């Protein structure tokens, strides 16, 4: 790490990155059983992986039994097996609309490690995918763990679990005791996966006492939720949320309204919810397109529920969950979050007269839009209406919850919370700036993966090197950092120390402070809750 107070120049950062980050992380390769195929014994049975340029890869390791026979119920451990099982291919994702290889038999995880059965205790980086609580899987090329494992001598794990209605349909008020935990089954899957890490990762060269749970978007929100779940206590020792927060969970009232809307969509009466256990998967997936009865936009929301069983308090309300106060935590956001998902003609070449009406549904807070426009024009006189739209929607909705979480952590009095803001923008699509998801390939070193917009040039490689190293050091020591960065200071009040990741990077107190103060004048309500 650079000495405190020593400036790091753009040239220094670029020099440090030369040759240090892979350009794709997704090159094709062959695999199969052979004399060099690594075999590891887990608690349930042995698995055979393959070697890829010095990294041992295990795909599709079963950590839980098929969920179909236990639909809407907590997960169970897998049945043990006797033969060595090949772990060459990714397992299925939870049924959804965005993945093609799906099944209710979806409790699988993937491991990348430099060594197996070697007695080493490497830090473990346990990644939870985004896609809100409804979509995605741990098998995206963006999350390929080879480069992180190689760069940091760490063990990388990605995971699939139940999503949408399969993982978060709240049935506590409609069904018998078997379904009392249905609203949080997706979270309980993640707890089971972390228990698998605790019990098995040592054979894969990992340290079960140095586990970083990190995730982006919905993945970060799932981690924030687990920080308030007693069942997850002690299963991870560091946490990092990349553009993904969960200040409050869904209340049982709103969750009930959503269950009723979903039941109507699949044609099941509330008095007959037991039939859900036998409906075809396709019908359950079709029902996910039902309109949300609580929010004025989008399809029905699914997420963790304050059920007073698995989740007995909100993650960051009225304060940060005390059970996780001692866990070091990173919180990050990208500078231009909403440019990733507010796309289309309505959001191009916005005029001043149309700007207020566009802001109302997209800020997700109840504030007079004309006032917001006026304040932004004072702060940034040169910005266009389109630029103000994306700055205001990012600050009001995507960034606001991260501030709340960081402030609540700081109020606990510890010095173990670290905040970053990614300002480095896309070299491939400069108009996008640094949108939501932009930090994923930078952290994983998968710059050339399909549909990334980081590019593979020297600047992107330099920022990727910084971010990879910062996360690796955080996993190892509980304090993030990189040789190309100044010393990363903990987040405190009122300073609000933040690492601004750019070329060069810099520590800054309260970046975008005027925008923070503007939106602090009105209450924040977690979208979906």
Describe this entry's structure for a reader:
The protein is α/β, with parallel strands linked by helices and 529 residues long. The protein is 27% helix and 14% strand. The protein is built from 14 helices and 14 strands. The protein has helices at 10-17, 146-152, 164-168, 185-200, 218-226, 252-266, 281-286, 355-363, 369-379, 385-398, 400-411, 439-444, 458-477, 513-519; strands at 39-41, 46-48, 50-52, 55-62, 85-86, 108-113, 122-128, 155-159, 206-216, 238-242, 329-334, 417-422, 497-501, 506-509. An 11-stranded mixed sheet has the order 3-4-6-8-7-9-10-11-12-13-14, with helices on both faces. Strand 3 and strand 4 form a beta hairpin. Helix 8 (355-363) packs across helix 9. It is globular. Residues 1-7 and 17-35 have low confidence and may be disordered.
Sequence-ordered SSE layout with sheet pairings:
Layout: H1 10-17, E1 39-41, E2 46-48, E3 50-52, E4 55-62, E5 85-86, E6 108-113, E7 122-128, H2 146-152, E8 155-159, H3 164-168, H4 185-200, E9 206-216, H5 218-226, E10 238-242, H6 252-266, H7 281-286, E11 329-334, H8 355-363, H9 369-379, H10 385-398, H11 400-411, E12 417-422, H12 439-444, H13 458-477, E13 497-501, E14 506-509, H14 513-519
Parallel strand pairs: 2-5, 7-8, 7-9, 9-10, 10-11, 11-12, 12-13
Antiparallel strand pairs: 1-2, 3-4, 4-6, 6-8, 13-14
């Amino acid at each position: 790490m650079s000495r405190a107070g020593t400036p790091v120049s753009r040239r220094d950062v670029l020099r440090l990155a030369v040759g240090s980050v892979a350009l794709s992380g997704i090159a094709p390769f062959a695999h199969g059983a052979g004399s060099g195929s690594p075999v590891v014994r887990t608690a349930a049975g042995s698995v055979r992986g393959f070697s890829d340029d010095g990294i041992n890869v295990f795909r599709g390791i079963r950590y839980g039994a098929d969920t179909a026979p236990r639909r809407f119920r907590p997960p169970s451990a897998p049945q043990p097996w006797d033969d060595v099982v090949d772990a060459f291919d990714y397992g299925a994702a939870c049924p959804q609309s965005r993945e093609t290889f799906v099944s209710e038999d979806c409790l699988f995880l993937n491991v990348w490690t430099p060594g197996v059965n070697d007695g080493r205790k490497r830090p473990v980086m346990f990644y939870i995918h985004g896609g809100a609580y409804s979509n995605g899987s741990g098998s995206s090329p963006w999350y390929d763990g080879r480069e992180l494992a190689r760069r940091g001598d760490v063990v990388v794990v990605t995971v699939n679990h139940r999503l949408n209605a399969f993982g978060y349909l709240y049935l506590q008020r409609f069904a018998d005791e078997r379904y009392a935990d249905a609203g949080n089954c997706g979270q309980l899957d993640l707890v089971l996966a972390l228990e698998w890490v605790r019990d098995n990762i040592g054979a894969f060269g990992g340290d079960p006492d140095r586990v970083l749970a990190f995730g982006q978007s919905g993945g970060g929100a799932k981690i924030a939720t687990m920080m308030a779940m007693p069942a997850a206590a002690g299963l991870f020792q560091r946490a990092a949320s990349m553009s993904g927060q969960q200040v409050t969970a869904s209340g049982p009232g709103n969750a009930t309204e959503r269950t009723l809307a979903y039941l109507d969509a699949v044609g099941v009466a509330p008095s007959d919810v037991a039939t859900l256990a036998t409906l075809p998967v396709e019908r359950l997936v079709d029902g996910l397109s039902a309109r949300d009865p609580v929010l004025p936009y989008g399809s029905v929301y699914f997420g963790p529920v304050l059920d007073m069983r698995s989740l007995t308090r909100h993650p960051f309300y009225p304060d940060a969950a005390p059970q996780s106060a001692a866990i070091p935590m990173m919180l990050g956001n990208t500078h231009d979050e909403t440019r990733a998902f507010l796309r289309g003609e309505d959001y191009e070449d916005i005029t001043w007269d149309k700007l207020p009406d566009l802001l109302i549904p997209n800020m997700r807070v109840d504030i007079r839009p004309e006032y917001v426009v006026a304040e932004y024009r004072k702060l940034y006189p040169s910005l266009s209406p389109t630029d103000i739209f994306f700055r205001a929607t990012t600050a009001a909705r995507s960034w606001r919850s991260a501030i709340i979480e960081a402030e609540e952590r700081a109020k606990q009095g510890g010095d173990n919370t670290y905040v970053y803001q990614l300002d480095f923008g896309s070299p491939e699509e400069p108009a996008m700036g640094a949108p939501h998801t932009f930090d994923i390939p930078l952290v994983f070193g998968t710059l050339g993966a399909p549909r990334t917009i980081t590019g593979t040039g020297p600047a992107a490689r330099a920022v990727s090197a910084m971010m990879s190293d910062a996360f690796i050091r955080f996993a190892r020591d509980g304090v993030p950092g990189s040789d190309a960065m100044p010393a990363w200071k903990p987040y405190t009040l009122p300073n609000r120390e933040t690492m601004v990741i750019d070329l060069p990077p810099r520590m800054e107190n309260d970046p975008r402070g005027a925008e923070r103060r503007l939106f602090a004048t009105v209450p924040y309500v977690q979208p979906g809750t």
